[in-house]
Amino acid sequence: MSERSGLNPSRAIALVARREFLTQVQKKSFLVSNVIVLIAIIGGIVAASIFSGKDDESRSKVGLVGDQSLSAALVATGDAAGNPVEVTEIGDEQTARTQVEDGDLDVAVVPGSGGAVTAITKSEIDSSLRVVLDGAVAAEAQSAALAAQGVDAAQLAENTASAVVTVDAIDPPDPERGQRIALSTAVVVLLYMQILAFGMYVAMGVVEEKSSRVVELLLSTLRPLQLLWGKVIGIGAVGLAQLTVYGVVGVGAGVATGVLTLGGTAWGTLLGTLGWFVLGFAFFAVLYAATGSMVSRQEDVNSTAMPLTILIMAMFFAAFSAVQNPEGTLSNVLSWIPPFSAILMPLRIAAGVASATQIAATVVLMLIVTVAMSAIAARIYQRSILRMGKTVSWREALAR
């Protein structure tokens, strides 16, 4: 039992944590900002779904004047070339020219003699569409020539259908690479913002209580470490809840709209991100609490916390540079070094390049270093929290 309050330590920490949690989540600014962010997340994903759907369904509009025998060849060649076309029958050349000029058609095709055709366009034909037109005209001319020689074009196509090239890639491209990069980027940005923002919340909360002398009243009933851990746990719980909501809404909207087809990977990445947020926040939060205890004015927090801010920014830039190459040497080496592993390991998990052994080993390393940092931060906090006036330097705080 605590000598000061009669509460056992865990109960005292829980009371402080509950107070910190409710103080944060009941702020109107907190609620409004989160609603705005969630609307932005859903809106962005829905917009991405709409625009990607339009891209997938877009077809070049081709008008075909007169004889429609070329229509099937145009459609088949366009599908094979990955540039699908929509063929529309046009009554005469003048109508075709008018529709091209008005932008209703990308190109109008007028068949001529001997298999030749004229392509009417407003300015110039897109190169990919030109490939489709040339291929379709050549295929139609070949079919006509074979028919003239008494060769059945359909039978010939059936007999030569097996003559294809099969690609056996030693290192095949990942068809889901784009989604993995998007997931990795989202993980890096969210962890950077959450750790930095909620770490500063801890520091500001500590110095606010110190500057208003509230801490003296609190420490008359609580031990310094109970107050420290209650604040860290309470504010951390807010950050974890916020990150969970962002992640669930983002992944859910992505899967529902079809933007994310990596459903299982996305949910697994979210769980990994939440776990690494807890580790990363714990590492920095106790240090931010220590920095808050070293100053007596809120305006002095930024300068005292600058080493921590620089370290978090270094982690962010290292992770961001590794998004395109998560298997690179930089990503692999830094992911083993706490606290860099707090951002780089979730990135590697999202990219699908982290082994179970590496994940387990880096978690253990992060826990060991976090415990060590917590001991140092707790000592600084206990020494500095009741010192008013002059800012305590890092050298003084760390001195034995």
Structural write-up:
The chain crosses the membrane at residues 30-51, 181-207, 227-260, 267-289, 301-321, 333-353, 359-381. 68% of the residues lie in helices and 5% in strands. By secondary structure, the protein is mainly alpha-helical. Helix 7 packs antiparallel against helix 9, helix 7 (177-211) packs antiparallel against helix 14 and helix 10 runs antiparallel to helix 14 (341-351). The protein has helices at 9-25, 28-57, 71-81, 93-102, 127-148, 153-159, 177-211, 214-218, 224-257, 263-293, 301-304, 306-321, 329-334, 341-351, 356-384, 394-398; strands at 60-65, 85-90, 107-111, 117-120. The protein has 2 domains: 9-46 and 177-398, no CATH class; 61-148, D-Maltodextrin-Binding Protein, domain 2, CATH 3.40.190.10. The mean pLDDT is 87.
Quickly describe the structure.
This protein is mainly alpha-helical and 400 residues long. The chain has helices at residues 9-25, 28-57, 71-81, 93-102, 127-148, 153-159, 177-211, 214-218, 224-257, 263-293, 301-304, 306-321, 329-334, 341-351, 356-384, 394-398; strands at 60-65, 85-90, 107-111, 117-120. It is built from 16 helices and 4 strands.
